[in-house]
Design brief:
This protein is of the alpha+beta class. It folds into 2 domains: 131 residues, Gcn5-related N-acetyltransferase (GNAT) (Aminopeptidase), CATH 3.40.630.30; 151 residues, Gcn5-related N-acetyltransferase (GNAT) (Aminopeptidase, 3-Layer(aba) Sandwich), CATH 3.40.630. The chain has 9 helices and 12 strands. The strands form 2 sheets. Strands 5-12-6-11-10-9-8-7 form an 8-stranded mixed β-sheet. A hairpin with a 5-residue loop joins strand 9 and strand 10. The model has no long low-confidence stretch (mean pLDDT 94). The chain binds coenzyme A. The site of coenzyme A has 19 residues, from helix 6, strand 10, helix 8 and helix 9. The site of coenzyme A (COA) has 19 residues, from helix 6, strand 10, helix 8 and helix 9.
């Protein structure tokens, strides 16, 4: 059972592992942090549910919640392999909870046999950056949130010769998994199992097939944009973009993105967003179709020493 030694916790705080019943409380914590930093929240509760349901994540040992004396969630952390996440509620900062959770995450990653640990932090979160730097972390990659405003209906170019486009439909799951994971393998460190991939894409409650166009050549999927409709924030969100290597630089990604934007526009959305990072090389493509960077995050990492 995950537990923080009371010696590591400020007086009045207690810890325990997360359960799937904690999704709502964790979502409130994460969105409180996002609102504090950016004035708006982008994480849906289904993202938290997907993270807590990750295959191979043992909630009992790989997650920790810290609550105050009233039972309110003050911070949490989870570790999967070499990836960690730490959040401290804005109302509970400056008391050492971040340091305690970071120490717990490093210890847990070490127990899991990782020789490195990494976590993503918003570039606006100066306190978290200072803590990571003073704990020996350095920058690995930069991530950007890009957004397009859609005051008028976006125009969609014609598909290149031999390519047809249609919305994602049931039965496309395996082909989309193969295509997107093959493409992401060009830079990701670990290929996802189908179950893990599906939890973050097509099995999410917010998955929006109508705004997820796929490109076909001879009935084979050669391109896909997988989108989410996050309730309440009035914007579309693109979760995955991939084009098979032998069909790149033909304008397929650009066309699929415009198609997704047009669908979201017809649904009444004013904007659409996506995250990308410095290893993908895709930022210029997004900027050329009119997306602009809204904010950035950095993945920080450090080597763990044995023991
Ligand atoms: C990123 C990715 C989706 C781009 O797919 P793509 O279909 O090759 O993209 P496009 O053809 O629309 O655009 C690519 C480039 O070709 C150019 N291009 C567009 N139409 C073209 C055409 N008809 N002829 C030649 N070049 C063309 C574009 O200007 C663009 O150049 P830029 O990057 O300098 O802006 C693809 O490289 C991929 O799957 N990468 C791996 C997965 C990944 O990183 N996905 C993004 C995660 S955020």
């Amino acid at each position: 059972m995950a537990d923080l030694s009371p010696k590591l916790l400020p007086v009045g705080y207690q810890s325990r592992s997360a359960t799937t019943a904690d999704v709502h409380a964790v979502h409130c914590l994460v969105t409180a942090c996002e609102n504090d930093l950016h004035g708006r929240a982008t994480t849906g509760s289904d993202r938290i549910a997907a993270d807590l349901g990750l295959p191979g994540l043992d909630l009992k040992y790989d997650t920790i919640l810290v609550r105050d004396s009233t039972g309110e969630l003050a911070g949490w952390s989870w570790v999967k392999g070499r990836r960690a996440t730490v959040h401290v509620h804005p109302g509970h900062r400056g008391q050492g909870l971040g340091s305690s959770l970071l120490a717990w995450a490093e210890a847990r990653a070490g127990q899991l046999g990782s020789d490195r640990i990494a976590q993503t932090v918003s570039d606006s979160d100066h306190a978290a950056i200072a803590l990571l730097r003073s704990s020996g972390y350095s920058r690995i990659v930069t991530e950007w949130l890009l957004e397009i405003a859609m005051p008028v209906e976006p125009e969609v170019p014609e598909p290149p010769a031999g390519i047809t486009v249609r919305p994602f439909r049931p039965g496309d799951e395996q082909a989309a998994y193969q295509l997107t994971e093959d493409a992401f393998d060009e830079w990701q460190q670990r290929r996802k199992s189908y179950a893990e991939w599906a939890r973050h894409t097509v099995e999410r409650a917010t998955f929006e097939p109508a705004a997820s166009p796929v490109a076909l050549a001879d009935d084979q999927m050669v391109g896909a944009v997988l989108s989410l409709d996050v309730p309440g924030n009035g914007e579309g969100y693109v979760e995955r973009v991939a084009v098979r290597r032998d069909h790149r630089n033909r304008g397929i990604a650009r066309m699929l993105l415009q198609e997704a934007f047009r669908t979201f526009h017809r649904q009444g959305k004013q904007t659409c967003t996506l995250w990308t990072h410095s290893d993908t090389g895709a930022r210029s493509l997004y900027e050329r179709i009119g997306m602009t960077v809204q904010r950035s995050s950095t993945v920080y990492g450090k080597a763990l020493t044995a023991g």
